[in-house]
């Protein structure tokens, strides 16, 4: 039984998403349950929009939870444990000074028994703390307002959490929580603290290094399958050279014993590579959706050409404004631009007419058939002299895909129409 327990005080970032993924994979590998627990005891900072963002992000990744609840709905449960701790002398009410001079408020402190707490981290091995340094720490503002450590311990106990898998920044929280577990007579779960995700310079990952909120990657056109695959390999590796693992294979392979101790460096270029590979393998539907959103008909030749050139579906809009603008608009070709180097306008017109004649007689019309039909003519008369005006007549651009790909994308009738317009321009 594992849990992902985010606080809805901000959006879901890739560090949290990776923690959720590790918990999900471990639970599914062992036939257990994955619980989503919204830790909203901080009433001032917790926001509904942040909870919605967390839920949306996990759903996008395909991390389906078996149970979901909010700590704010469990006040009576925490109150029962707080009262028991106070009654047994394991916690006590203390008056604390607050910022306003002369004012004091009551809080509930845990009576720290001291001593050494040792636990066996599944990733880092044995870890020990001298708990005397923690002193008597606050566990609630009142019986009605439990704080983080108390609520976490009670929930883990009552939910039957067997494994707590979280970031290494939580290691310092563990001794307090173990002390509280012992105080309420709860069984200690196994702990596994996974490495933090670092920036390329090995500093803490932050917004200055680029997008870190999961929703930003979604908006930029990354596929959830690619994100899951990439996040799984940040701090964990099953061994071997293989890198592409769909979710079902990740579940079967996941082993905390193969998690690394050192920080995992976030590499946006590597994420782009993963996304590109998933787009090549099965991203046609996503590419079609992106094209339709741009008001462009998603023909098979266009989808195939884009699939080889994009890292994310977000790149499609940029290409349609640049190299692939010929898809949406006919080129306005200047006479001098249609002519290859030392050749003449009449030569260019002659070549385009010959190409148009070949295209007009073609029954099968795709890039391969076009290449087979036109290339022998280009080899005979000079590839640059033939293919430059051919491509420029279709695109009106210095940089674009090859003319065979372009012609297949715009179709036979449109290709013939553009060749005809170019010939008129050359003969004018």
Describe this structure in words.
The structure is a single chain. This protein has 428 residues and is of the alpha/beta class. Among the domains are: 283-321; 335-427, Arc Repressor Mutant, subunit A. Helices cover 46% and strands 14% of the residues. The chain has helices at residues 14-29, 48-61, 75-87, 148-159, 174-183, 214-219, 224-232, 247-253, 268-282, 284-293, 300-307, 315-321, 345-360, 367-381, 383-395, 403-410, 412-427; strands at residues 2-4, 34-38, 67-70, 91-97, 104-110, 116-121, 125-130, 138-142, 145-146, 163-167, 190-194, 197-198, 264-265. Strands 4-5-8-9 form a 4-stranded antiparallel beta sheet. Strands 1-2-3 form a 3-stranded parallel beta sheet. Strands 6-7 form a two-stranded antiparallel ribbon. A hairpin with a 3-residue loop joins strand 6 (116-121) and strand 7 (125-130). The protein is elongated.
